[in-house]
Design a protein that fits this description.
Layout lengths: L25 E9 L7 E16 L2 E12 L1 H4 L5 E9 L5 E10 L2 E10 L4 E6 L5 E5 L4 E2 L1 H9 L12 E7 L4 E17 L2 E10 L13 E6 L6 E7 L4 E10 L5
Parallel strand pairs: 9-10
Antiparallel strand pairs: 1-2, 1-15, 2-3, 3-4, 4-5, 5-6, 6-7, 7-8, 10-11, 11-12, 12-13, 13-14, 14-15
Length: about 260
């Protein structure tokens, strides 16, 4: 949260006293659809983000992270969704070593995985359906979309400055290319949620144009105003209206 230059953020653990999350953390969410800048009025589905445990990738300890989402029965009649993302976040350098996506969104299906070689800075990609392989160049700062979320949660709250910009480099496995993005904490806001009133930091996020998102308007994410930085709410514009994500419950939180 504390940069105003063109250097991508470095999350290496040696700068951090302790993690804001640990094994078995589980956060559940509701997805809804509605007009932009309004509350979602149609329940689209449910999802969760989990820290499943510690596993080794190439001899290095990693947090195994999982994000999954499914459309509701009613919404599935119009647009069925069943998505699973998994990431392996190195516990020392706080970068992704492996990422996979198993996607079913209406008629679109994909099953891909990528291994990140951090010594030679390349991504080894495989399409598990077509068996296509490729190698893509990355940098020391490259994250996947899920590892970036958890790496950002490690930024100390005392380092957050409103209207400051943090630059991120995300590997887009679908397109097999690097995306430069950023987020900006813009204001403090208290939200009424299913787990009570929560003080949050509202952040603006640059989004990329793809199959669903127009890329014209930023997304917004609200995270807890403490050192856990738990995502509480998301509003993401799509080509028509917006998708809203709201927290429902949390389990096994790390003590502050």
């Amino acid at each position: 949260f504390d940069q105003k230059n063109s250097i991508f953020n470095n999350f290496e653990y040696k700068k951090i006293k302790k993690f804001p999350f640990f094994e078995k953390e589980r956060i559940k969410y509701k997805f809804s659809y509605g007009k932009s800048n309004k509350k979602g009025i149609i329940t689209a589905g449910y999802g969760k983000i989990e820290v499943l445990g510690i596993e080794k990738i190439n001899g290095r300890d990693c947090f195994k992270l999982k994000a999954s989402g499914n459309s509701s029965k009613l919404f599935s009649l119009f647009y069925e969704v069943n998505d699973v993302f998994e990431s392996y976040l190195d516990t020392i350098e706080l970068v992704s070593l492996k990422f996979s996506r198993n996607i079913h969104e209406d008629k679109y299906k994909a099953k891909q995985e990528v291994y990140f070689n951090r010594n030679l800075n390349y991504a080894s990609c495989e399409n598990l359906i077509t068996k296509e392989h490729s190698k893509e160049k990355i940098s020391n700062y490259t994250q996947d979309i899920l590892s970036a979320l958890f790496a950002c949660r490690n930024i100390p709250n005392k380092s957050i400055t409103l209207n400051d910009t943090t630059l991120l480099e995300i590997f887009d496995l679908e397109k097999r290319k690097l995306l430069d993005t950023y987020f900006i904490p813009i204001q403090l806001e208290t939200l009424d949620t299913k787990i009570g009133k929560i003080e949050t930091i509202k952040c603006k996020i640059k989004t990329e144009k793809n199959r669903i998102f127009s890329g014209k308007n930023p997304a917004f994410v609200w995270v807890t105003n403490d050192d856990r930085h738990i995502p509480v709410k998301v509003e993401s514009p799509i080509k028509v209206g917006s998708i809203y994500i709201e927290i429902l419950s949390v389990e096994n939180l790390k003590d502050n």
